Amino acid sequence: MILVSPSSPGSVIPSGQVAIYDGSTQLTQLTLDGNGYASFAMWLLSPGVHNITANYLGDASFAPSQGSVLQSIDGPVLGLAPSSISLTTSLGLSTTQTVTISNPGNGPLTINSIAFAGSTEFLIANNTCPTTPATLAGGTTCTFDFTFRPVIASAVVRHGNVAVKVGVPAVSALINVTGTVAVPTMSVSQTSVSFNPQLLLTASPTQTIAVTNTSSLANLKITAVTIPANFFAAAGPNQCTAMALAAGASCSIYLQFKPYVAGPKSATVGILVSAPGTSQKISVTGTAVAAFTVSPVVLSYGLTTRGTIKTLTLTLTNPPNNPTLNGLALGFTGNTHYLQSTTDPGTCGSTLAGTTTATTCTINVMYAPTTNETKAQSDIGKLTITGTADGVPLSRTISIYGNAY
Fold first, then answer.
1. Residue-wise over 67-81: b if at least 16 C-beta within 10 A, else e?
2. What are the b/e assignments for 192-212, b being 16+ CB within 10 Å?
3. φ/ψ of residue 197, rounded to 5
């Protein structure tokens, strides 16, 4: 016990209050009794050396004053390092913090229990602290490992505490604990992919989409890469499949446009990942171009009198949902007696509109064997029709047969 009494000259007894400090921490504030004294129980202090200061606040007769004393309290002292724990790791992986219990005091420290309260994803292991007897000598240490292994796919922070309970006069303590599941984050090199117009049932040049796990800790678990109709995932190095993509690692999607139905296409490529990650979609677009058709595929004029003209009609069809055909042109090869009719060339011009329904036009082709041609001569030729649809070159070639008579 410490007694506090400000010195008083003569018969006047001081009154008022005295503030008691341990270093810079105020412990209590006492009122002087009728004899000018106040008492403070030093045994309430924890073991160790304390710098005790009594700060008299003064009264009407006495000015404020203070005095200090170094007081050593014998006994065990509980020390914990660290005093709090914060662990972060990926789902299914472990991370560990070693905790040191020390006794900087000069008496044996009785360790009654070390227990955790909180999520079952935390674990105390490798405890080196004494058990029989459960006393830690002054000036010595022991350790235990505290492990966090999250198994629940949730980004919610886990909380708890480790209670280290010790025998008096040492003071028990808590270590506050937090555990965080590292959430994998993903970046893609392209958030949208646009393909040039492509002829049906043919594959476009490959476009590459790089997928990167941008998190520093967590594995990105890709469960599937979904490819929409009319598009195709080509093979390539380090291809993205159902896989665990390590932190900082990348994989690639090799995408082609391989349409089987004419018309504009708009869809999404899905990169599906396990929680707590977030799946991502990439928009893909392209226009599928169908080849135009020509009917009939062979023109056969049979026997045709020399010096006369026989005309047959071709029908050119632009399929439903196809772009407009542009730059339509005719090219005759082989026998020179075949050409487009000059009097009635048909309805085909240089363009043929594309709509939701099929559109058609006609080409009239005439056969005009000359009078000086050998009788019964077989005349063979070809007609090639060319054009473009959204920049895709298209062509059809038909065979032509006739006999001059």
1. eeeeeebebbbbbee
2. ebebebbbbeeebeebebebb
3. -55, 140
Residue 278 sits in the same domain as residue 297: no
Domain CATH code at residue 28:
2.60.40
Q: Which residues does residue 143 pair with via DSSP β-bridges, in sequence order?
A: 100
Residues 273 and 317 in one domain: no
Partnered with residue 200 across adjacent β-strands are none
Question: Contact at 8 Å (CB) between 121 and 91?
Answer: no
Handedness of CA 337, 343, 346, 351 (dihedral sign): positive
Give the residue from 73, 92, 107 where a domain finishes. 73
Alpha carbon distance 198, 288 (integer Å) = 5
The CB density around residue 51, as the number of other CB atoms within 10 Å, is: 12
Residue finishing a domain among 259, 289, 319: 289
238 shares its domain with 150: no
**Does residue 360 share a domain with residue 305?**
yes
| DSSP state letter for 139 | T
Residues 203-224: pLDDT tens digits? 999 999 999 999 887 789 999 9
DSSP letter assigned to residue 14: P
* Structural domain count, the chain: 4
Report pLDDT digits (tens) over 141-200: 999 999 999 988 776 789 999 999 999 889 999 999 999 988 889 999 999 999 999 999
Q: Give the tokens for residue 403.
A: 């006999």
For residues 302 and 369, what is the distance between their CA atoms, to the nearest angstrom?
A: 12
Q: Residue 14 is part of which domain span? A: 2-73
CATH of the domain at 107: 2.60.40.10
Per-10-residue mean pLDDT for the chain, 405 residues long?
60 89 93 89 74 92 89 86 93 91 92 93 94 90 96 83 93 94 91 96 97 88 96 96 93 97 95 90 97 97 96 97 96 96 96 96 97 91 97 96 95
- Of the candidates 349, 185, 341, 364, the residue with the CA atom closest to the CA atom of residue 276: 185
Per the DSSP assignment, residues forming a β-bridge with 310 are 367
Q: Whole-structure pTM over 0.70, yes or no? A: no
